[in-house]
Amino acid sequence: MNKLNSDRFLLRCMNSSDATERYLGWLSSQVSQYILNKPKTIDDLADYIDQQIQDESVYFYGIFTREDHQHIGNVKFIIKGKMQDSVEMGILIGEPAWHGKGVAREVIECFARHAQKQLGIVKMTLGVDLANVAAVNAYEKIGFEKLDDGRTDNGLTMVWNLNGH
What we know:
Blueprint: E1 3-5, E2 9-13, H1 21-27, H2 42-54, E3 58-65, E4 71-80, E5 86-93, H3 103-119, E6 123-129, H4 133-142, E7 145-147, E8 155-161
Parallel strand pairs: 5-6
Antiparallel strand pairs: 1-2, 2-3, 3-4, 4-5, 6-8, 7-8
Helix pairs in contact: 3-4
């Protein structure tokens, strides 16, 4: 699954040449306020991408517009579970012009369809900061449900059972 297509986006595996000033800029802007451990330089960013590529349990995709191949964000899925049948995900829509336009939903649903068919994935989980109300609402619209797992930080775990998808 090196490339996936949705109606508006191409998801393709990231590579170190995707470590650009534009991408790095997202990590020092308001759009990444809920992301921890952010690379500070292009070299650090390229190293981070390389680490993701080397990890066989990780699918790390850049989100590119199909129309003009503009890199607008990233999404990462980590294979989890004893049966390797679930993924933990994180997403960053770096380009503010694309916020509120259904990117997360389209991208997550695109991966879910392929992951369910190709990998036997039955569940997606994610962590989100409770203060990120827009993200929580977006995830609920997709089908994620809040999971009471006893967290005591400002985070929330959400889960989406794909069997009903």
